[in-house]
Design brief:
The chain is α+β, with helices and mostly antiparallel strands. Helix content is about 15%, strand content about 20%. It has 2 helices and 6 strands.
Length: about 120
């Protein structure tokens, strides 16, 4: 089946075990092999909404072209509580953040490039 824009993220499953899928404009589901199906059982499930957003954006399924910008991020931590290795490990684990933005401006994905961590003097 062919993709019909726009791609949207839909929350599915029991509220205690929320999962997300990507659906297109006619209700087809994205499968693990990047095909489209009417069968919800074949849909790829994302355990985090941000992962579904990232996948949709990576394939430009939102119906609009995506731009990527680079920005510097300054992280300040208590020197007695964090070693360089601990901070790098924490940033690696929590590197993606999804911002909703104001009405009509949703869909901002922030990603920390954790392996560029350097101490600033």
């Amino acid at each position: 089946m062919d993709y019909m824009p726009p791609g949207r993220i839909v929350k599915v499953c029991d509220p205690r075990w929320s999962r997300w899928v990507i659906k297109d404009g006619v209700g087809q589901y994205l499968t693990a092999d990047s095909r489209w199906t009417d069968d919800p059982a074949k849909a790829v499930l994302f355990c985090c909404e941000i992962d579904a957003v990232e996948e949709r954006n990576r394939h430009c399924l939102g119906g609009e072209e995506m731009d990527t910008y680079g920005v510097s991020l300054l992280v300040t931590v208590d020197a007695r509580r964090w070693s360089h290795e601990e901070l790098a490990r924490h940033l690696k684990r929590h590197r993606k953040h999804f911002l909703y933005g104001p009405e009509g401006k949703e869909g901002i994905l922030l990603e920390i490039i954790w392996n560029t961590l350097k101490k600033v003097e």
